[in-house]
């Protein structure tokens, strides 16, 4: 009997009992279905769930609720030791002890014959499927290893430093091992010279003093910037070489032909990419719709390279692609997800060459909204390869020899369709945090030339909006056909982060309406009021840090940043495994021929794939960020003592992190160097405040600094403060005045870009952590 109160709602105890009976699987939708609640009852149900969460009776994460100490069915865990019977014990890799207390223990159940990739030991990190244990004693959970993600470190990457008496020392590049130098005997140097980047096998030492190591591989001299990206590649164990079997499959692949395909070779599709793009996996075309029922509307075609035709499930190419998860982009190189014959040849939509593609034909109404769409497996021939600036210049009245003939028949219809789509986009009002990323330009010898911020053009936005439409169409089609897929999801900010943002804005006298449903419009309204105000950069940073991190999931909980109910990555299968899965699912759903998603792929198996590629995405972003930090530190190493202007990008108990205006480099001003008085860390204001003078250094402040130290291998910079902060007390800071506007809008940031986390020596800072940039749709992080 489902207990209900006088108003027809289930009792709190009935809801809690249902949640306990279905660990890790319950959300608002499931509860409403179980108790027969209608749409009109959802508001009351959500209120009741918030009360239960506030009372600590349940725990709410994303759109799922559970018992407070319930672990999700799939998680990343570190194997920490063994029990008295020798069985492996693990703990969740990501666990907030301040909020949740001691992490629960998980007993690893190992089969007699482990599958490849599941043999693990102490110190390894693994993806687990977990469930509650039925045993009265021992760990509360038992788990099964899905895949070992990271083996215990038995090899360290570092810089070899030669000793006068022979042999040398290894200085690790990983900051976690910075105090663990290794002694390398003369016989174990393998000819390494001072300053060489080497990988070293650890040899356990039985006595006192340094452990010893043996050089396994020489990777080049760190005096060359060309070795800098290798540090990140090896440190994060990013696969650099393809398996011989995958290379053989790539070389044996035959170009696509018309068999089983529609002939679109006469459709003048064009690619629009960055000028240095090596592969071209998407092409676009638009024309006015001649249907009298859609007067003022458009037909938009988006064609994507048909990677699923070449990379079949279960092949060596597929295994290598899944292992990598995505391509990784460094200033001096790309580590691709697929071999060059696939990515730069057979699947690159080069002009004049027939290429297989999966295309979506979208009917756009005069209001800019997508009315309908259909998917097609085609053979196409690109009419032209353009870059963003080239296409924009043509529209702005400066066509060249390539764009001149394309202006009226191709480019103007594309821009007209974009203008219509943009109106619908503005009505949808996605999160308006959109800042172009800095780009490092290298000289021919691999050294840093300069750092630029590419101009954001309508050409960029055109491609982005068309790609978003195509991604939505893919998700809608697969949902309608009830096919499993991998969604691109972005959760709404947690209540804790929203409350923290509201408290911060209150210190600036900035109004923030917390009532009602949480929507991107709420944040956009705040940012729009602040355009042109001194507080705009500061508030933009804090709004960015309040956002959740996007990820891949076989379960859909929407994309908050884009304000979309369903969204899946479809448009970059050359460089993202998630897109390849979506292509295969479409081929299967629509009966389009070879390369379909196998019947064995279920939401459960795809949840494992989604968890893995979310990890590889974060791995790639961290490696890219660290490489940029090291390159810029190397670039600035000969400018010790120089002065720069920057902005405070992080505030911690350890000091201030400053991002330089010209290069985007991050460095630390230690708190001990700020002055003779004691500074308190004010978490709500994201500030350090002097106890005696009231001097305040706050997130977003513009400061002048002097470079004191540069550590290229660590990618670290240390500054000292030259300019003084406002010496008014926090209460006396100038209040917000919404009437101040600027004729020049301020850019914002994408919700998926990650800001370099502020590091500290002690204590935990829950608010003020941030995330920085990543790669996504055409360089964005969608």
TrEMBL record:
Q: Could you give a GO molecular-function term held by this entry? A: exoribonuclease II activity
Assigned EC number: 3.1.13.1
Under catalytic activity, the entry for this protein gives: Exonucleolytic cleavage in the 3'- to 5'-direction to yield nucleoside 5'-phosphates
The annotated region (Disordered) lies at 725-782
Q: Name one GO biological process term.
A: mRNA catabolic process
Q: Where in the cell is it found?
A: Cytoplasm
Please give the family membership noted in the entry: Belongs to the RNR ribonuclease family. RNase R subfamily.
Stated name of the protein: Ribonuclease R
Origin species, per record, is: Bradyrhizobium cajani
The gene coding this protein? rnr
């Amino acid at each position: 009997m489902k207990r209900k109160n006088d108003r027809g709602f289930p009792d709190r105890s009935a809801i809690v009992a249902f949640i306990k009976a279905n660990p890790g699987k319950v959300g608002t939708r499931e509860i409403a279905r179980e108790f027969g609640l209608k749409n009109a009852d959802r508001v009351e149900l959500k209120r009741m769930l918030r009360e239960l969460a506030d009372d600590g009776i349940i725990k709410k994460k994303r759109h799922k609720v559970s018992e407070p100490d319930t672990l999700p069915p799939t998680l990343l865990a570190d194997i920490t030791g063994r029990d008295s019977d020798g069985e492996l014990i693990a703990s969740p890799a990501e666990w907030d002890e301040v909020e949740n207390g001691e992490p629960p223990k998980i007993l690893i159940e190992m089969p007699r014959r482990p599958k490849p990739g599941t043999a693990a030991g102490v110190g390894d990190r693994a993806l687990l499927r977990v469930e509650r244990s039925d045993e009265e004693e021992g760990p509360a959970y038992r788990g099964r290893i899905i895949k070992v993600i990271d083996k215990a470190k038995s090899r360290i990457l570092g810089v070899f430093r030669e000793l006068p008496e022979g042999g040398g020392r290894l200085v690790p590049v990983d900051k976690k091992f910075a105090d663990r130098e290794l002694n390398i005997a003369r016989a174990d140097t393998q000819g390494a010279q001072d300053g060489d980047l080497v990988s070293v096998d650890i040899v356990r030492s039985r006595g006192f003093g340094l452990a010893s190591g043996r050089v396994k591989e020489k990777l080049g001299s760190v005096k060359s910037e060309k070795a800098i990206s290798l540090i990140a590649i090896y440190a994060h164990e990013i696969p650099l070489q393809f398996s011989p079997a995958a290379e053989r499959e790539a070389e044996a692949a035959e170009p696509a032909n018309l068999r089983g395909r529609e002939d679109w070779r006469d459709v003048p599709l064009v690619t629009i990419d960055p000028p240095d793009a090596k592969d071209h996996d998407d092409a676009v075309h638009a024309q006015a719709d001649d249907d009298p029922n859609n007067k003022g509307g458009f037909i938009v075609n988006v064609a994507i390279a048909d990677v699923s035709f070449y990379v079949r499930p279960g092949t060596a190419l597929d295994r290598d692609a899944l292992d990598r998860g995505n391509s990784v982009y460094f200033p001096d190189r790309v580590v691709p997800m697929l071999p060059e014959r696939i990515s730069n040849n057979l699947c690159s939509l080069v002009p004049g060459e027939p290429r297989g593609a999966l295309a979506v034909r979208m009917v756009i109404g005069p209001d800019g909204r997508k009315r309908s769409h259909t998917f097609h497996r085609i053979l196409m021939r690109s009419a032209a390869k353009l870059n963003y600036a080239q296409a924009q210049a043509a529209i702005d009245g400066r066509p060249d020899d390539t764009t001149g003939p394309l202006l009226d028949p191709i480019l103007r219809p594309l821009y007209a369709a974009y203008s219509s789509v943009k109106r619908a986009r503005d009505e949808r009002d996605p999160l308006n945090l959109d800042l172009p990323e800095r780009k490092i330009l290298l000289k021919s010898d691999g050294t840093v030339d300069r750092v630029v911020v590419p101009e954001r053009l309508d050409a960029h936005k055109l491609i982005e909006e068309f790609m978003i439409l195509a991604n939505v169409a893919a998700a809608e089609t697969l949902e309608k056909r009830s096919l499993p897929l991998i969604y691109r999801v972005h959760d709404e900010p947690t209540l804790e982060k929203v409350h923290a943002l509201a408290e911060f804005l209150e210190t600036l006298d900035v109004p923030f309406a917390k009532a009602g449903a949480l929507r991107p419009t709420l944040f956009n309204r705040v940012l729009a009021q602040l355009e042109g105000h001194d507080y705009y950069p500061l508030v933009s940073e804090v709004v960015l840090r309040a956002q959740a991190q996007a990820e891949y999931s076989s379960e859909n909980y929407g994309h908050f940043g884009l304000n979309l109910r369903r969204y899946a990555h479809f448009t970059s299968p050359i460089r993202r495994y998630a897109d390849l899965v979506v292509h295969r699912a479409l081929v299967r759903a629509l009966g389009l021929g070879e390369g379909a998603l196998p019947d064995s792929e279920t939401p459960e198996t795809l949840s494992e794939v989604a968890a893995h590629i979310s990890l590889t995405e974060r791995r790639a972003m961290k490696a890219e960020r660290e490489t940029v930090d090291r390159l810029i530190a190397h670039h600035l190493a000969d400018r010790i003592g120089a002065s720069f202007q920057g902005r405070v990008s992080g505030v911690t108990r350890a000091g201030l992190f400053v991002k330089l205006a010209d290069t985007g480099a991050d460095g630390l001003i230690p708190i001990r160097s700020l002055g003779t008085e004691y500074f308190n860390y004010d978490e709500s204001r994201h500030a350090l405040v002097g106890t005696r003078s009231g001097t305040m250094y706050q997130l977003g402040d513009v400061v002048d600094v002097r470079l004191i130290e540069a550590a290229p291998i660590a990618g670290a910079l240390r500054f000292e403060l030259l300019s003084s902060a406002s010496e008014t007390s926090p209460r006396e800071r100038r209040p917000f005045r919404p009437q101040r506007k600027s004729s020049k809008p301020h850019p914002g940031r994408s919700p998926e870009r990650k800001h370099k986390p502020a590091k500290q020596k002690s204590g935990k800072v829950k608010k003020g952590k941030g995330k920085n940039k990543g790669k996504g749709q055409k360089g964005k992080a969608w």
